[in-house]
Design brief:
214 residues; mainly alpha; 62% helix; 8 helices
């Protein structure tokens, strides 16, 4: 799951009193921001193994902190606390935490078994990355269905909506059909940060033109 992780952010941002869509875009990919940061330090590890699944060559063999259910829960609680500290709105903070936690459950659908409950086996994953004809329409349907909900509720400027939609489609196309790296380098994390940042910037820009939610 890549752009599909932003579906909960868009759906939640459609309603009051959710945080802004830009904040929720950060929430939706927070554990991946953390993972690619820890990848640089070697605390968490991956390698490229073409064929490990039909759609994704990443062998995520050591990610006990960011991609365990327990670890994701800690990130969710920390982000919720941060939103509460700035907004003093418990509902907004709870919604932000739910969006963070949604990342693990969406990954559970697509990952081959590499997720854990608390950092150690059993490893979990339903493996939809091995079933492109299911995973691809599911990911696009979730993402653009949620974008439709957001647009219907918040009525942002059409140009900004199309910009975000274009960015998401471009990033997903690169993810699905782009060249596979030979090995993990610093550039692996920097490329991920650029992609996450670009999508978040586009979402923030769209959100600046949106009406207050009902």
């Amino acid at each position: 799951m890549f752009i599909g992780h932003w579906a909960p952010a868009l759906a939640v941002a459609a309603k009051r009193p959710a945080p802004s869509v830009g904040v929720l875009f950060v929430a939706a990919q927070l554990v991946d921001w953390a993972f690619f940061g820890l990848l640089i330090t070697g605390v968490e590890r991956m390698r490229f193994s073409p064929g490990i699944s039909a759609m994704n060559p990443m062998d995520l063999y050591h990610l006990p902190y960011t991609h365990s259910l327990l670890g994701s829960g800690v990130f969710a609680a920390a982000f919720a606390a941060l939103v509460w500290a700035f907004s003093k709105d418990r509902t907004a903070a709870l919604l932000a935490g739910v969006v963070v936690l949604s990342h693990w459950f969406l990954d559970l659908l697509v990952h081959v078994p590499d997720l854990t409950l608390a950092g150690s086996p059993p490893k979990l994953g339903f493996g939809l990355w091995n079933h492109p004809m299911i995973e691809m329409p599911l990911e696009l349907g979730l993402t653009f269905g949620a974008l439709w909900l957001y647009v219907r509720a918040r009525k942002p400027a059409p140009l900004r909506v199309w910009t975000l939609a274009g960015v998401l489609l471009l990033l997903q196309a690169i993810n699905w059909f782009g060249p596979v790296e030979a090995e993990v380098t610093l550039g692996t994390s920097l490329l991920a940060f650029f992609a996450f940042g670009l999508a978040t910037l586009a979402a923030w820009w769209m959100g600046k033109s949106a009406a207050n939610p009902a």
